[in-house]
Amino acid sequence: MSKPTPGHPVRSRLRLSGRADRVVLVAALGILSAVSPMATDMYLASMPAMAVHFGASTSAVQLTLTSYMVGMALGQFLLGPVSDVLGRHRLMVAGNVLFLLSSVAVVLAPSVGAVIVLRAVQGAAGAAGVVIARAVVSDIASGRRAAQLFSVLATITSLAPVVAPLLGGVIATVAPWQTVFWALAAFGLLMLACSVLVVPETLPPHRRHRGGVGAVVGGSWRVLRTPSFMGYALAFGSAFGALFSYISASSFVVQNVLGYSALGYSVIFAVNACGSILGALVNTRLVGRVEPGTVLRTALVVMGTVNVVGLALVLAGITGWTTLAHLFVSQACIGFVLGNAVALAQSRVPGRAGAGSAVLGLVQFLIGGLVSPLTGLAGQHSAVPMAVSMAVCSLLAVGAVLLAGRLSRRPPGKPSPSAGPSAGPSAGPSPGGDSRGPHRGVPPDP
């Protein structure tokens, strides 16, 4: 496969004609990126039933979320740089097979401890689709075009928090919790079909990094040592921490504090997810007119303000419709945050799309895994830990993005010459006509 150019964009394995081929390819990447909300949101309504089934505490059951997040984080950190060396496609297929098998294994787990371990494996396997889908976008687009594609992926991914909790609520009402993981096995089969039949190899051999393990470690280390990238990565991860604080505690808060049923909770969760989808759709249009950095900073400031006000209301003992409004507005802001943060971060490490995607995933899911058990410290009948975590994470995100903006006024460094001719940037010219060459820097982020 030759390097993609504006006149010769990357095509799917189906080789459809015109626009249909691009739509199918982006849809497949969106499905692969949606694995985390599917693997977490679908069984939130069944977590109380899982605790009863295993005779486990709330925090123990929430550790099944934490272990998934840790597995997802470590899997991305390893697989992203490896894909810069070995290519994208084979790792994606292998990860989807393992995700399918681990989903079935959870159904047969004899204890909550076994579920915790298997969820870590499931997270590491699902990481292949998430990290490589991001790398594929960076392979084929850059600049505002990349921000638009990442927003489209975020929109597709945001459909999962609509479908997953509704399906999960129905399952929690009429079937045992194990049914959720049979549904995840079916989703794993869908991901496998996308990777085998649709997504092509976007990093041909002549553009891969050489040097084996040394190249893998070196790529990640160079990304970690890029301050402007880490600023955007921390903003991205902290915003996700606010999101996951809500995800991990919302089933207990909405059902036990606000008094809704499992199905009612699923409807509320889906409505909030629609807010995120709406934000991502608006952002896709907005970044064509406004700099992505400006949109990102504005969205994070609004989210931080809303979450601080929401915390103040919860501490004052005011819950109910105000809590629901707080959660909806916060989720709507997320739609403007994630795609722009990823695009801006990846722009700071040209030529290392896999390693950059890996570090983003590591930061994202380590923070998510950290906040998950913390939101359950006060038990099943308090919204305070969730509100505190959402406020703290969003304020950290504001600080990180402001720092990143200051650091980004300097152009990013060029790829190391020691990497050889194969170390040229994996992000070729975008379909929109960006003609950056392998030895030119990119302009500072806005």
UniProtKB/TrEMBL annotation:
Compartments (UniProt record): Cell membrane
Ranges of residues in domain Major facilitator superfamily (MFS) profile: 22-409
Recorded topology in the membrane: Multi-pass membrane protein
GO BP term (any one): xenobiotic detoxification by transmembrane export across the plasma membrane
Record-linked SUPFAM superfamilies: MFS general substrate transporter
Alphabetized GO MF terms: xenobiotic transmembrane transporter activity
CDD domains named among the record's database cross-references: MFS_MdfA_MDR_like
Transmembrane spans: 20-39, 59-79, 91-110, 116-137, 149-174, 180-200, 229-248, 260-282, 294-318, 324-345, 357-377, 383-404
Biased composition (Low complexity): 416-429
Segments of this protein annotated with the region Disordered: 409-446
Major site of localization recorded for this protein: membrane
InterPro entries: Efflux_drug-R_Bcr/CmlA, MFS, MFS_dom, MFS_trans_sf
Span of the signal peptide: none
Keywords associated with the record: Cell membrane, Membrane, Transmembrane, Transmembrane helix, Transport
Domain of life per record: Bacteria
Gene Ontology CC terms, in alphabetical order: plasma membrane
Family the entry assigns: Belongs to the major facilitator superfamily. Bcr/CmlA family.
PANTHER family xrefs: MAJOR FACILITATOR SUPERFAMILY, POLYAMINE TRANSPORTER 2-RELATED
Protein name: Bcr/CflA family efflux MFS transporter
Species whose genome carries this gene: Kocuria sediminis
